[in-house]
Amino acid sequence: MIKGQCLCGNIHFETEAAPMGPSMCHCGQCRRQSGGIWSSAYVADTDLTITGTVSWFASSPNAKRGFCATCGSFLFWKALDEDTTSFALGAVSNSTGLTLEKHIFVADKGDYYKIADGLPQQD
């Protein structure tokens, strides 16, 4: 069981499913919203239980981002045409047992850091 929450505790999420695709996103939107690199994994929508009121922001015509309106924690990313939801690994409260698989949108990464872990990088 993976459990997580926002900073203030108004939103909680959990899943018993094995999360897929653990990655670090370097896109400009994730950097602006999180203040850095956003790490996430995803599960099927039917396998994710969310309690509390998530505020959703339509960040593009294809996706939305879920956050806590009280503390501002950026918790979820959802492609509108997919039946999965990504959740913030940084918001997970217990051990995940996951290992990062890749870095995505590295063409947008900030110039103030290097990616040096040897994982695959996708532009």
Task: Write structural notes for this entry.
The chain is mainly β. Helices cover 6% and strands 39% of the residues. The chain contains one helix and eleven strands, in the order βββαββββββββ. A hairpin with a 6-residue loop joins strand 1 and strand 2. This is GFA family protein. Residues 2-114 form the CENP-V/GFA domain.
Explain briefly what this protein structure is.
It contains 1 helix and 11 strands. The chain has one helix at 28-34, and strands at 2-5, 12-15, 20-25, 38-44, 49-51, 55-57, 63-67, 74-79, 84-88, 102-104, 121-122. The longest helix is centred in the N-terminal third of the chain and has 7 residues, at 28-34.
Keywords:
three-stranded antiparallel beta sheet, about 120 residues, 1 helix, Metal Binding Protein, Guanine Nucleotide Exchange Factor, Chain A, globular, eight-stranded mixed beta sheet, mainly beta
Distance between the termini: 32 Å
Fraction of residues in helix: under 10%
| Distinct helical segment count | 1
What is the CATH-assigned architecture? Beta Complex
Lay out the secondary structure.
Layout: E1 2-5, E2 12-15, E3 20-25, H1 28-34, E4 38-44, E5 49-51, E6 55-57, E7 63-67, E8 74-79, E9 84-88, E10 102-104, E11 121-122
Parallel strand pairs: 3-10, 10-11
Antiparallel strand pairs: 1-2, 2-5, 3-4, 4-9, 6-7, 7-8, 8-9
Family: Belongs to the Gfa family.
InterPro entries: CENP-V/GFA (IPR006913), Mss4-like_sf (IPR011057)
Organism: Tritonibacter scottomollicae (Epibacterium scottomollicae)
